[in-house]
Design goal:
By secondary structure, this protein is α+β, with helices and mostly antiparallel strands. It is built from 4 helices and 10 strands. The chain has one domain.
């Protein structure tokens, strides 16, 4: 999976209201919808076929990708010393892989970040899975000085990460993402 994909959508579960105009969300309804058969294409292995998109609750998904401006706010709130590497040099100098979109200035302990003019509303890129989890925790804890290590996920457990009971802002599961992307509740069908 490309790193730029990881922050494309965040979910707000259990019908809670969105975070004001800071991040628009779209409600995904029709709880209990059937999954869509994902056929791996080999009739000799029908046991490898899976059903995707069946979700038995109402949730909300980010209407748009997380923007450079939103991620810059996160960096300014949480990465003055950046012990978790939330900023990548490739954001400011992509080395042939696009144009810079977030610039860092200052020194260790007093870093500050700025979106490149004209790039504020573009999707953020060069984000790792753990960066995305920390961003979700920060949102769940009210932004600003909100904690990045606990909230929707507890990150002190190393590579073993699961959603916490009562999680709010989270990365979508494969079923949640598939339903939001392809399912039409009016027809009960999945579309390409």
């Amino acid at each position: 999976m490309r790193q730029s994909v990881l922050l494309l959508a965040l979910l707000l579960l259990f019908g809670q209201e969105g975070n004001g105009s800071w991040m628009d969300t779209t409600t995904i309804g029709d709880p209990g919808n059937p999954g869509d058969l994902y056929d791996i294409g080999n009739p000799a292995y029908p046991e490898d076929d899976v059903y995707l998109g069946g979700v038995d609750y109402v949730y909300q998904v980010g209407t748009y990708e997380v923007t450079v401006d939103q991620y810059t706010e996160f960096l300014n709130a949480k990465a003055q010393s950046d012990p978790y590497g939330l900023y990548r040099d490739s954001m400011g100098n992509p080395g042939g892989y696009g144009n810079p979109f977030i610039l860092r200035s200052g020194s260790e302990g007093s870093y500050s970040y700025a979106a490149v003019a004209g790039k504020e509303d573009e999707p953020v890129r060069w984000i790792s899975y753990f960066d995305a989890l920390r961003f979700c925790n920060w949102l769940s804890n009210g932004r600003g000085a909100g904690d990045t290590e606990t909230g929707s996920y507890t990150l002190s457990l190393g590579l073993s990460v699961t959603r916490e009971l009562g999680a709010t802002w989270v990365l979508p599961t494969e079923d949640e993402w598939y339903k939001a992307a392809y399912y039409d509740p009016d027809t009960g069908m999945y579309y390409d």
